Amino acid sequence: MSDVNYISAFCRISSGKVNVNHSIMFTGEQDEAPPAFIKSVYKHYQLNYPKFYKMDSLCQLGFIASELLLKDNKLTEKYNKEEIAIVISNGSSSLEIDTEHQQTISDKANYFPSPAVFVYTLPNILIGEIAIRNLIKGENTFFIFDKFDAQFTAQYINSLLNSGRAESCIAGWVDFYEGNYDAFLYTVEKTQGVIRAEHTAEQLLNIYK
Amino acid sequence: MKLESYIIADNIISPLGFSTEENFAQLKQMRTGVQRLEKSALSPEPVCAAVIDARRLDDEFKKLDTSTPYTRLEQLFILSISDTLKQNPAIDIRSPKTLLILSSTKGNIDLLDPENKGKFDKKRLFLWETGNMITQHFGNPNKALVVSNACISGVLAIILGKRLLEENTYDTIIVSGGDIMTHFVVSGFQSFKAVSSEVCKPYDAARDGISLGEACGTVVLTNDKTKVKGTAIAVKGGSSSNDANHISGPSRTGDGLLLAIERTLKEANMDASQVAYISGHGTATLYNDEMEAQAITTARLQDVPMNSLKSYFGHTLGAAGIIESIIGIQSMRSNTLIGTYNYNQPGVTKPVNIIKKTTESTVDNCLKTAAGFGGCNAAVLFSKEA
What confidence score (pLDDT) does residue B2 get? Predict the structure, then answer.
């Protein structure tokens, strides 16, 4: 089998815009706060997934990106669910919700740590949420980089596919911290999709600008 | 020909000691590092936890003679890696062919605590900055690869090391995992009602929750067998998986962990009947230990001697997969299986073969398993080579 892999589809949510496969699909209100923008995207697409409201902002953002990414490219219909990998990275880990958990314990007189908050204080919970939604069981790893590392991401996922450890992959970058947010999720497959881009660092940086 | 990965140095820092040997000697005697702390900064209530002695950490770190201020976790990483460098002069940490992989769930999360406000730059909260601090300390030219994947982080980091060595971009990979005890983590697990009021009891009928702990561990891997000193131990296979079931509760059937185990054995080209020893995850929660027993039995590994080290070290989160792997490796080197502290009565519905007392036995290989929040599972297999 060829060692060439393809970026078959992508979804980017940043700066108040939803971009799916190079088309701006939705634009938020001007100066909308990030959590409100994320909820308006959810409502716009009528995603109807009650667990969404339990999620922290990082998971809400990544979850929506994964839904829009997979809407027209249903990996789970093409591949065995054990052969789909999920590899996501970000810069801020779960610091947004970490700060929230810290606030519940800093004051001994007002002490109320909550399991519903604490469970989200791990970045890979996002991978779990996407896996649960789509029943994906393959390889999963969450990395922390100072910025999206196209070089490493391309190299590592290509080696996962080329060594037979996965047949396809949901990959990318999902970050949410102190009012800054950015989601870029894409699918990697052995066959071309609507995007027609080889899965290389250069092509990734052409898309993720 | 696929390039193999060999272990050429290792270190554990825990309440039981500052080297692999020191820790292993304590475990052989079945001495635990978990203690009941009546009063501590970790919790408003008494708590059982494994905490590294602050004075010893301070003394050991002073010996390094560095003037840069480092956080508690960074000190642990630096000490742990420094010890491995002393063991094997073939490790060139300044080489562009050497990569550092860090495994941590919470990094410098203690810096969020108002008591630590202003002690360090806010940037130090980011795990990638922890990576920068460590690579800069040692003069390593590459950006550290940071894995933060809940309680499988350590096992995953070793698997990643093996995979990157196959590609030959690097010839040496230093895999270091660490997490510290904080009020942040203790309060969170307490809110889940997941913390035992005593030293935890893995796989036992009376188990009632976890003990938390702090530790740091380092394994150095290479794809150059000539750098091995003594017994050659290779990483033969490894895999991760997801239950796709629940973000905080393990699968009831153990199917996710089973998948990771089966793929690991396949990659290692081994049958279940050839596995000599299993270093389990064994957190001592009702559901985790039951899930593991289901997976182990379905994989036909129920007769293989198995232990959990959580009742010695506590659950050390991002360090767990690494320090527990190192104990497994040391068990292979010394042909000694460590008994599971606090295990008395079988307490899982499938009969698994839990090691009660430390025994001498030929140990040719070790299967290490892990599972964590987010439904993640991982397994890795180490094997002795002639």
Answer: 81
Place of tokens 């009528």: A46
DSSP A23-38: EEEEEPPTT--HHHHH
CA-nearest of B199, B216, B217 to B208 is: B199
How much is the pLDDT for A2? 73
Find residues 130-189 of chain A whose CB sits inside 8 Å of chain B: 131-132, 134-146, 149, 152, 155-156, 159, 163, 165
Grade residue A1 by pLDDT with cuts at 50, 70 and 90: low
- Write out the residue limits of the CATH 3.40.47.10 domain(s) in chain B: 5-227, 232-385
List pLDDT tens digits, range A185-203.
999 999 999 998 999 999 9
How confident is the model at residue B1, as a pLDDT? 67
pLDDT tens digits for range B80-110: 999 999 999 999 999 999 999 999 999 999 9
Amino acid identity, residue B219?
V
Tell whether pTM > 0.90: yes
ipTM given for this complex:
0.97
Q: Spell out which residues of chain B touch residue A163, defining contact as CB-CB under 8 Å.
A: 163, 166
Helix (H) / strand (E) element for B236: namely strand B232-242
Inter-chain CB pairs, A–B, below 8 Å: 156
Q: Cα angle vertex B216, ends B214, B220, to 5°?
A: 160
Is pLDDT above 60 for A159? Answer: yes
- Long-range CB contacts (within 8 A, 24+) of A38-43: A38/A13, A38/A64, A38/A181, A41/A13
Contact A144 B163 (CB under 8 A): no
> Pick from A104, A114, A144: which is nearest to B127 by CB?
A144
Report helix, strand or coil for B7: strand
Predicted local confidence at residue A109, as pLDDT: 86
Higher pLDDT among residues B359 and A72, named by residue: B359
The C-alpha atoms of residue B17 and residue B23 are separated, in whole angstroms, by 5
The Cα of A22 is separated from the nearest Cα of chain B by a number of Å equal to 30
Q: What is the CATH number of the domain that holds A127?
A: 3.40.47.10
B150/A106 CB distance under 8 A: no
Nearest to A125 among B192, B255, B373 (CB): B373
> What values do phi and psi take at B123, rounded to 5?
-55, -25
Mean pLDDT for chain B overall: 97
The CATH fold assigned to B5-227 is Peroxisomal Thiolase; Chain A, domain 1 (3.40.47)
Distance between CA atoms of residues B280 and B294, nearest Å: 12
**Subunit contact A102:B112, Cβ cutoff 8 A:** yes
B232-385 belongs to which CATH class?
alpha beta
Q: Using the 8-state DSSP alphabet, how is residue B144 labeled?
A: P
Segments forming the whole domain that contains residue A192: 6-207
Hey, what are A109's tokens? 């007189």
Mark yes or no for CB contact A165/B239 under 8 Å. Answer: yes
Write the single-letter amino acid at A128: G
Interval B173-199 mean pLDDT = 97
CA pair distance B160, A8, nearest whole angstrom: 25
Rounded to 10°, the helix B320-334/B20-28 angle is 70
The per-residue pLDDT for range B28-51, each reduced to its tens digit, is: 999 999 999 999 999 999 999 999
Domain count of chain A? 1
